[in-house]
Write a structure and sequence with these properties.
Chains A, B, C, D: GO terms for molecular function: gentisate 1,2-dioxygenase activity. Chains A, B, C, D: It is an enzyme of class 1 (oxidoreductase). Chains A, B, C, D: InterPro entries: Cupin_2, GDO-like, Gentisate_dOase, RmlC-like_jellyroll, RmlC_Cupin_sf. The structure is a homotetramer of 350-residue chains. Chain A is of the alpha+beta class and 350 residues long. The first copy, chain A, has a single domain, classed as Jelly Rolls. The first copy, chain A, is built from eight helices and 26 strands. In chain A, the strands form six sheets. The first copy, chain A, has a six-stranded antiparallel β-sheet with strand order 4-23-20-25-18-17. A six-stranded antiparallel β-sheet of chain A has the order 5-6-13-8-11-16. In chain A, a hairpin with a 2-residue loop joins β1 and β2. The longest helix of chain A is centred in the first third of the chain and has 14 residues. The first copy, chain A, is globular, with a radius of gyration of 23 Å. The interface between B and D is large, with 39 and 39 residues.
């Protein structure tokens, strides 16, 4: 039967023939390639901390931090099987470090963030400075900076410490821009006292001749104590957005932008009883619950979340947040990439 | 047999168990996820125009421009089958428009460039202005701008016109940021005379109150006549880089950056006898030969190129160019994305 | 006698003749107009707080805040008499507000900073928010923002409060860009609780959708407590620059730049016994001593400074600082203007 | 008689006393220091070329270019006598170079522009490249670049050449940021062929690895032929602003900003019979007539202008332009300074 100027069989024969020359007809796939709205393969999903904590701890007996280099369980999006991706651009995992262990020093062009979930005694070292990791702290290890993690001996108070890793691994895989190398020793030398970066850059001041060399924040630990205080104060002042509750983004104080060029990070407070309106945006977002309980509707899913649960909202899926008790959510997404390229869209639905 | 603290079988059982919870062990894939150097799946490839021209023309009898919306043969990288990708982030195709045809008006968030290969009589319309397409012209249709293409009737001098399309389709697919819509009519109204944008922005001047609203160039046709003249003059002045010959990048005169935020474009002259040194970079590049003949070594491949041939150099693959006769190469890549994210690396080898 | 091609008399007659047409010979003044190095008319000078405090207080009995609008004694550079200038681009004055008084609300395109010297009970209101002024606090009232100052009644604990005002009045006079208007009431309405701006922008976080509209910091009070703590911590960490001691610049966290586009502000710590090396730069700087005693050599002058003294270092004059006891200096200059125009030069002499 | 809390005599005595301490009462001068609207001392003025040309030529017999270094008659604003200023921030002068002369090479931090008025044979050299000066060309010699001027011998076709110099001398005097030095020889070596910079940067392209090092345009001659063509085309396309006619600003193609950080430059076309509406802005502007005749109302002045006349419009003075015959006006102002500092205001009056 005729389709325009040719039969279906004509076309099939033609397609088969040109395929051998690495050619394909755009008109058969145009609507998929240039969709009306985003068609993410990434799906809404949640990992309950209670469901996975035992697996994380079991990994501690299965393999040493040194052998593993990084002892992490990847949170793999069910819509992206085998791709080590929680969204199409982002990777997330739960990392465990036991007392007395060291995760050896290396660097890579992938940017990484750490959001601390439980335990005490561990540190992350970046650029010659170690920072102690407390639950709720947000820590960055920017692209191509040597970093290692360690933990006190149990006798010194070290506990198993678990944190959420967020990296731009899938993004850099697509961009074919991944480089890595190991530091010649398991730990990098400590050349600066703990708190040095924060003292230089964390007080709305900076060294007099400092000029930023790249888009990475010179602060590398944003302590929970401070972030929590900002949210508390704003809530007391009456701030409450009908979609977001009280929501702040972490900034690179040297530029006002995101702490790293590829990932934005947020912390928000939802008071008990909050019933947020629906929003959607083109940046896929990973949420990590810090405190409290509530419900997140994401697309056609409903997640009842509690402390340390992780859930993900794909691009352009409607998201609606509600809190049964005062709740704090940390989140991260590829928003700065979308902004840099002029692609971010957001919608706040009534 | 023991591996560290557990047997291989222990681990396999564990991996199987956690997989059901959408968890995966990072340590089994760390080296793939965080490679020493880029490991592109995209491979070096070439499409000879003489090999594919007949197929392009045949498409003209197989389907109308109107039915196809865009009558394009996608150049699909052999390393990325079925993905409509010439590199991991970029799409390329050969588009044909016959005399008297119209490719109807639509817009999408994907950015597009056109590089004209043969024929005369066709135009592209963007933002209410039509520009006639001449071989060697470089034309942009920025993100979310309505655009349509048309051609004169054969009786008015219209010829079959073929151009190379370059789009960031795979990048936007990964970013889940694709939106599209059709214009209510097949062509948008013409509201400005041909040459208006160029007169406003193309003379190293700009309207007195103009401030750029986004990263897209206000010039939308960069005529070959001008680009060729710049290369000619520089060559006569003695410019000749041992790696690149005489190579210029197109700029957005409102910012100095690339004409669109996701794709850089270049034009270079290689004099007869030029034997370039080897270079490599993390932006994968699509080359389109404008004039002349020569040889491109890309990774372990060697391509003997002539006019209108298209070839592709994946990330971090060594590239070496030589010219048997005076040659002009147009090329495009995702360089501005890599620069915006602090990821671009280049190496010029001796 | 001949000078080149003409006599001195010829030239004088010619000069006189062309002067009537508003013409003048460049060659007679070229070396003054285009000097080898800066030739500031501004001179090094110091105002001892002990010498001027009584005059400031006397002003309180001479005129009311309301009549004066702003009850300020201008610190006028001896090299710039009658110009209300402490440097060629900057104005400085000591402002007094007594218990129960109000300095009425107005706005102007001149940017203003306040550095608090003594007393308690007073506030500054900007953008609907009042901030209590404590000694050592640095407060901004950006260009074209309504601002008023007030003080508690004596019965509520209000004391005479004195602060240093710094404005870009001479700069805007030269640029002919001064506009001003009064608010219809003596005080602007209070629409936001005290601390609101700081909670939003002061914690290395920002509201999620905030984009800076101009170059002014969204924080308007930088409390001394925080600035002092940053300096203390850095000094304890071993930071000590041979020229500057421990010196930080205040930043606009939305951009990383100076808090306002025309004035940079700094705070530095000089430990007891510090003998700084000599530095010079093209930004003329006004220093205000917060704590401690020491010596400043500026050009051919030597100033023995103590708490609340103000001194000024003109462009390109060598400056050398020494501390007899632990000292804190606040300072401000036109550095961001010089940087924006590509003019800043600095030299650190051995 | 009492004035508020004190008598006039009390105050006078107090003022006299504190003056000895370099203190002055703000309240006596507040309205002058912080005016309602700009109060420029610069006044509207015009220099008719026919009135001053003979004086310029006479300077050629009075002093050699070499002795003068720069043989220039300064256009001194009648409101700013003795200050070598045409506006409060800008300097303008008419420079003459005779056949066979050289104006020796030097550099200074002051930025300079040249707008060619008459004659042929002369060149300006910047950064090792000479450019021939044609009437209507706009040439820059950016801050701290060595530059010299020369002219052909009369036997080779050299004619007396006159151009308008525009510099930011008063601005840099206020900023105390002036440095200068002579080149060790009278001319700098020529290291690049004429047209090299334009070929690299003037075609909406740039060398592939070029990144701007500062705010200065890499193009240093903007030829009249091109600027005129852009205006002509736009006028033919129907462009005609009721205030400005057809007005373009010159851009630095590396940034989209002004060619130099301290001065904006414009060229506009007014068709015969054009009666512009009134506009005003805070940047004081110097106009140089290229072609045609017309009338400029500036404040309360009316100037009937013809070719090569120069007139000046102070800050915030109403400006209204009319053309008796097709007219082209070149102009320059301190607009980029005002924009960088957030101070520019404009008003288009009906």
């Amino acid at each position: 039967m005729a389709e325009g100027t040719s039969t279906r069989a004509d076309r099939a024969a033609y397609y088969e023939r040109i395929a051998r020359k690495n050619l394909a007809p755009l008109w058969e796939s145009l609507h998929n390639l240039v969709p009306r709205t985003p068609q993410p393969r990434c799906v809404p999903a949640m990992w309950r901390y209670n469901d996975v904590r035992a697996d994380v701890m079991e990994a501690g007996s299965l393999i040493t931090a040194e052998e593993a280099v990084r002892r992490v369980l990847i949170l793999e999006n069910p819509g992206l099987p085998g791709q080590a991706s929680i969204t199409q651009t982002l990777y997330a995992g739960l990392q465990l470090i036991l007392p007395g262990e060291i995760a050896p020093s290396h660097r890579h062009t992938q940017s990484a963030l750490r959001f601390i979930m439980e335990g005490k005694g561990a540190y992350t070292a970046v650029n010659g400075e170690r920072t102690t990791m407390h639950p709720g702290d947000f820590i960055i290890t920017p692209s191509w900076t040597y970093h290692d993690h360690g933990n006190l001996e149990a006798s010194e108070g070290g506990e198993p410490v678990v944190w959420l890793d967020g990296l731009d691994i899938p993004l850099l895989r697509m961009l074919d821009a991944g480089f890595a190398e190991n530091y010649p020793a398991s730990t990098q030398p400590v050349t600066r006292p703990e708190g040095d970066s924060y003292a230089r850059y964390g007080y709305n001041m900076a060294p007099v001749r400092y000029q930023p060399a790249n888009g990475n924040s010179p602060i590398f630990n944003y302590p929970y104590e401070r972030s929590r205080e900002a949210l508390d104060r704003l809530y007391r002042f009456g701030e409450l957005d009908a979609w977001d509750g009280v929501k702040l983004r972490y900034i690179n104080p040297a530029t006002g932008g995101s702490p790293m060029p590829t990932m934005a990070t947020f912390m928000q407070f939802l008071p008990a009883g909050f019933q947020g309106k629906t929003t959607r945006s083109t940046d896929s977002t990973v949420y990590s619950v810090v405190e409290g309980r509530g419900t997140a509707r994401v697309g056609d899913q409903e997640f009842h979340f509690g402390p340390r649960d992780v859930f993900v909202a794909p691009s352009w899926q409607p998201v609606q947040l509600a809190a049964a008790e005062d709740a704090i959510l940390f989140s991260f997404s590829d928003r700065p990439v979308q902004m840099a390229l002029g692609l971010l869209r957001e919608e706040r639905l009534e």
